[in-house]
Predict the 3D structure of the following.
Amino acid sequence: MTPLETLLAQDGDSPTLTDLGGEDTFWQQADTLAASPLWFRAAETLLAEWDTLHHPDKAADFITRALTTATSPAAADDLLDQLVEHPGYLQRASSQLNTLALERSRHHTTPMEAELAGLFLEAALRLALPGTTRRYGLLDRLVDPGATRAPAAYARRVVRALGTAYEHWRDSDLLAALQHFTQTAVHGDAAYELAMCHLADAANAPDRPTLLAAFTTARSFLQQAIDADEDRPDAAAYLAALDAVLAFDTGDTTTLTTATCQLRRSLTEHAMWLTGTRTHWRAGRYDTEAAWYTLSLDLEHADAHLDQRLTIWPNQTIQHILATYTAHRSVRLQPADAAPGLQVLVAPRIEDAFANRQGLLLHLRGLVADAPDDWDANAAHQLLQAIDDRLQADAPQAQSEGPGKAAAAASYPELAAELGSQLLASLPAHMLTSLQAGHADWEATLISRLPIAQQHIYNDIIAVLKGCDDFQHPTVRQYFAHLIVQTIRFLHSRTNRARAHHTPRFAYLFAPKPGEKLPLEETVQEDLHDYLYGNLEDVDIEVTDRSGGRADIEVRFPGFSTVIECKRTKGKTTRKGLRRYLGQTVAYQAGGITLGMLVVLDLTPKPSWIPNIRDDMWAEHIPSPVPEQRDRWAVVVRVPGNRTSPYDMTTPAMP
């Protein structure tokens, strides 16, 4: 064992390049390290210090070359998991990694080869999902008929990859390929994935017959999965969820209650089964189960009230009704502006209840006019619009183009754009005035509380985000504006933090003491998460299965969520330099709104200058590389770290 291999073999974190004698020493022994059983430790060292490498192309070639002959599934799995999310490596070697992954997925004769082939196939899929590589070579591998004769270790991963690929691309060939596995040793997994595919089709169905047909097929495959494997709480959970939705549609209270209880038991069993296991990149399926569970509870709550004669319900009850009304969004299988999905099944019963009982309708209008902060206002307006359409269609002398409708739209153009002129015409004057005042005042009130410099930051960011269609949605703008304000306050707080008074948790903001290392990106990630969690509540850290990757911080709001990517850098901290991180930032926007945030801990030395807060936060517009696809936007925050005290600073050199 060479001296470098001895260092790599030590327990704990991978050694730094300095520990290994520097980058030049590393390249002198690169051939030996690439063939060593410890190659993956050397690769992790390169990935950890990518931003400081003098020869990143050599690093990319070393890693790809080592993967070519890798024989350890555990080592390959860990490294591939890092590579498919590493922007520096992917910038130089995404095509080579994709080619290698597809080639290695072809060899699956022995159990060891089968395990490795499955891992490389998943890596190719994870590259294709966010658009890092083209998917055509992957599709060819996924529909390979020879996979059905491969060992179970490979066949099972092909089945799961087929299910994920179909949910993203809706290619009928993928569904046909899945069908071929129903007669193999992995038929239970194949049946489950087929059920998920048809369930996704149901949630995106354009009409009731299509949705019910997809539900029927999904139920059949779920039952096959349960029959094939004794322990399938995941399939049992989805089966119970479908029964709950169908029972709500028919008003079958008994079946709805029974199905909800079964769903609760199945999810508990599944959670216990997952406890202690490694979080996988596709673990989001469990998150979807939880969404179906929440939906089933809302269905049960709504069912308990819709047939009551009581018309004055608590706000919480109305919220349950609205969550049920927008059920297709509750399971997050497509954006809110897609096909109606589950709404075509559950909405008619709710609309009937409100349209037939004037007291309910008036109560809903009153609540919308003075809505609590946690309301899904978009769902309420959508319900009101549907009811008004129905009532107006039934009216004996409807005047769809009457002067009242035109006058209301002309007097309140912003409300007309948001709610529709027909709904505005049906509202009394005092309610229109109240809605207009609330629409105009919330943002002004929010910004007026900020100091002048922070107001300038906000206004500059908003000027860039005006081009983002998603940001123009009232709900997105309202909640994302709050996130911007909280992040401005976070940046202001951390910029002003004094070294003499900081606690250990804020040490990452200051120059390390002699012998100490610079902080990792986790420090700013955890600090920002804790700050936002105390101000925005629904904030998670290290969330898996977000656009095929793992999100550093996810902030969830009613109807949408946004991801905050956290990085650290020791060089290239200019706006242009930080754009290298925007690729990974906007990759998380593949499954939701085209709006996110990048937070970078700036660890460059600051002997004489700390940027003004206005220079440390801005918005970026990232045009799509494909003309027919959507552009994306990101708010960038540069947190000044590695700082010294003002009295230690020297006068900046004049240009």
